[in-house]
Amino acid sequence: MADKDKKYNVLNASRLSVAPMMDWTDRHCRYLHRCMSQRVLLYTEMVTAPALVRGRARHLLRFDRAEHPVAVQLGGSDAGELSEAARMAADEGYDEINLNIGCPSDRVQSGCFGAVLMEQPQLVGDCVSAMIAAQPVEVTVKCRLGVDDQDPTQVLPAFIETMRAAGVRRMAIHARKAWLKGLSPKENRDIPPLDYPLVHAMKRAFPDMHLSLNGGVGSLAEAEAHLAAGMDGVMIGRAAYHTPPDILLDADVRIFGATGGHSGPDARGIVELMRPYIASHLAQGGRLHSVTRHMLGLFSGRPGARGWRRMLSEHSHRDGAGLEVVDAALACIDEVQERQAS
Known about the structure:
The chain is of the alpha/beta class. The chain folds into 2 domains: 252 residues, TIM Barrel (Alpha-Beta Barrel); 75 residues, Four Helix Bundle (Hemerythrin (Met), subunit A), CATH 1.20.120.1460. Helix content is 46%, strand content 12%. It is built from 17 helices and 8 strands. An 8-stranded parallel beta barrel has the order 1-2-3-4-5-6-7-8, surrounded by 5 helices. Helix 10 links the parallel strand 7 and strand 8. The longest helix has 19 residues. The chain is globular.
């Protein structure tokens, strides 16, 4: 059976997911993360429907079959374009199609999609209804608590109700408002206060909806606490990117109940698993930096991590750089460990 025809248990996988992050969760990043966990749900960067439909950029949907279960995140506000983009994503074999109603960047606002659509819930409902009708893969929504001067206690439950009426059964909620006026996208990730109690209240108010909490979760222990408190899933962003072993290596055991002790290899083992992938990428004319930029945090907090990061940062972007740079970076780890052991 071809991979695109397999049915992956996305509902179970969404107990823990790695958030879609622009410029970060590309296919190389996702392959790396899959080496650390076989069960977490992975998301693409946001891909805009206009780019796929008008720009004929279907190559943006490319992914390695090893990434399953994997979801694509789409951006847009035109029901027709989103329907066509959803059909493309379904044909490519994605396990879930997510609509972005959370990104606060200026370029997203100017295109009338992302968090600004929190102000137009019925339009979002029309879009997701059309996406659901156009193809067989589950359509989900990722949103904020609200935007600007909206009252989240009023806006969020009404938004969820509209999504439910449109046929959505699973949502991820970033537990911050988005300030579209006055804050940069970076500031929107930190400055608006987190409101976890409101997201938990939404789960109690909508027990039939599968709701994941996103925003500020920095450890597996925090994820476990939210799940124990009743959330269906937890979505982790920056912590999963910057310190992936801390989040992903034990996730299969602690979050999904996998048996057999430690769920995967250590950081060095992950490097070895990445070697064939990197070699294939280089053989196809790719640049080393495209992959290794996502590997900088593999040894975070461990002896030699600084040398590992420095070697990759300074040398992997150079023309002709290959696996010898990775070997030199590993040598930095060995040097520090040997010095400490002597």
